[in-house]
């Protein structure tokens, strides 16, 4: 399935977030600047792209018609996702942040019952609550087993402080990101393309990021040049490229919970790219044999997701049962 390939490609660019956020924290940069600067740097690139594609008019229309839900789900998907993630980087190495973040693929599957699906029945269109795709859930657990194998060699070094301040915020973010993304897809129902949607959500959250940057200015002062440069790289790589690719993939399969779960599961490959990146940039040690085995399990899980997304019929069976 092409969307899985797009999802894996996005995870390569997403990996930059975990590596550079940790790098900025190690060099003394504040998480307040790391989180807000990313979205400030995203904005001009997205503005140029949407302007070039002549997409401002429909975007503005959607924002004006539904300002409150648009703002709410944008905050959930962007602010409540990225602020906890950068905060956690102050207490956890990149591998732990990236590893814990993989719970987002489980969160995406478990959130399925919160969304409705319109199906055709003999009595006409009917809205029904969606069911958790059990096959996708089972494959997701296989991927999480691989993540656990990667984390085991490091688990003995995790302190209570790291657990409370470096893990719990990530758990919160892991649910906020897919929930906000899915709510926005349901709200817009394909009326905006990916670039318009990412720009609109970024614009909606700028006031929140401005408030966070003011707090940063008062409490820690201006960001260093190193943090500005690294935040710029994160903004372009993760904020513009990765987010756009990931939203594009999820938009394409938004009406099939099995395929949507498969696309969201591609983010598990981030951990592989983070380990490789931290080895190259931050000088961490080579993965252990157990960690390499975990990587193999993740690859097997992603292969199963890809096969199921391409040949599974869970959505068809579900529709037949309901009709």
TrEMBL record:
TM ranges: 7-24, 30-50, 70-89, 95-119, 131-152, 158-177, 198-222, 228-250, 271-304
Presence of the UniProt keyword Membrane in the record: yes
Pfam family, one: EmrE
Entry keyword annotation includes NADP: no
Keywords attached to this entry: Membrane, Transmembrane, Transmembrane helix
Designated name of the protein: Multidrug resistance efflux transporter family protein
